[in-house]
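Worked Example 4.2. Consider the chain below.
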Amino acid sequence: MTLLIRGGQLLDRTKSVLERADVLIEGERIVAVGPELAAPADAQRLDATGHVVLPGLINAHTHAHNNLTRCLGDNWTLEDLWTHGPALYGGRTAEDQYLSAALGALEMLHTGCTAAFDMFSAVPVPTDDGVEAVVRAYTDVGLRAVLAPMLSDIVFYRVLPDLMDLLPADLRRVVERIDAAPAESLLRLAEDAIRRWDGAASGRIRLGVAPTIPGHCTEALLAGSASLAREHGVSLQTHTGESKVQAIHGLRRWGKTIVGHLADIGMLGSRFVAGHGVWLTAEDIGLLADAGAAVAHNPASNLKLGSGIAPVREMLDRGVGVGLGTDGSMSSDNQNMFEAMRFAALISTVRFPHEQERWIGARAVWEMATAGSARCLGLAGEVGAVARGCKADLILLRADSVFLRPLNHAVNALVYAETGAAAVTTVLVDGRVVLQDGRVLGVDEERLRARAQSAVERLRAENAGAWTLAEQLMPYVSATCRTAVRTPYPVDYYAAPPIAR
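Applying the procedure from the previous section yields the following structure tokens:
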């Protein structure tokens, strides 16, 4: 099929103004961009008059399982969230996992995102049916995605420094009875998923490998994950130094930083993506750069969970590829990449007072949300641009959006002001219209949301015991984490030093 998008406005080379241009698409790819393009007589035409034609934004890091639990936590750290894991995610059916993934994919389309790296999870362990449900959800909605079931074979409570020593005997016995799945079965599930689903939906669905957090994995699981990624040529992403608690655990376990250990065991490379990458030393950043690895930056989540301010300027200066993510809706409340861009542009300023040359700025953030995130998905040069040869993953945004008028500087307005929520009218993925006139085609959104609400209410009742256990554990988790963050570390990425108590 040939499609001509006529009459729209595109960002100029400086990204400061909009220029009138057409886009000609053959099949899944853009074949020409320019003013007054000619097209075959039988080509379909899409009138983009009054719209800005943009590359679809790309979410470098999200979690499908979070969408049913949006806004359940407030004033939680990352470790508080993990403490509530069984309460938040336990007992889900494959249908529940489908609903959660579909909700997130719908939200991303509505806010101008056309592709995502989704590290999804299940409690107590991912299953074949659960993987199939997430694949089906993304396929039905029409989003492009790299999907990776999260793998962990060490129970979270056992990696918190000194937690087991703090727990009273009754709680310690409960925690000691919690087991993780063995590395062998998790790696088998991941490989089966790759063999079955990689390349699904006409290539829009790719599979990846996601050892959850290095500290939550045995050496066998880490090594096996790296081997799987190499053997099948897929991306590998893991939460790397997201919190200082993780960084301190890494020092205790390996006698070096997390990235230092991953380098030693051969996990770093051009397909490696460090999720978050907050607590990275200069040496860590150098190792990532030299390996050709990338970082998925999640500024909103890092702020809400109090994890710290990632050293993005240092990463960019050293040549690390940086993409941008929303993280899951449990930790940053939505899947809106426009909001993620705004946070990314703003948060760097407080690290470098009156050193404006070191601030990130709108242009760099736009590149992170497009080309940078494409690299994190293993799709560098394929998506993230309105250019000849690229996949036709595009969004049409109303040029008269309340956030774009008056228009003084196009990319500044898109990064700092636009929200996407009401202005995105049309979305194409692989040259196919998947959202038209603000409605996702082929999906009954009202019915899906009603089913999701029913699932949430059922799960909250069924997981009441897990909620009680989490609240009992919270004081002890908080105590051990407060001790950990007072431990000296080579870098400090908090906005202020922790108060000694």
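The mean pLDDT is 96. The radius of gyration is 22 Å. Compare this with Example 4.1 before moving on.
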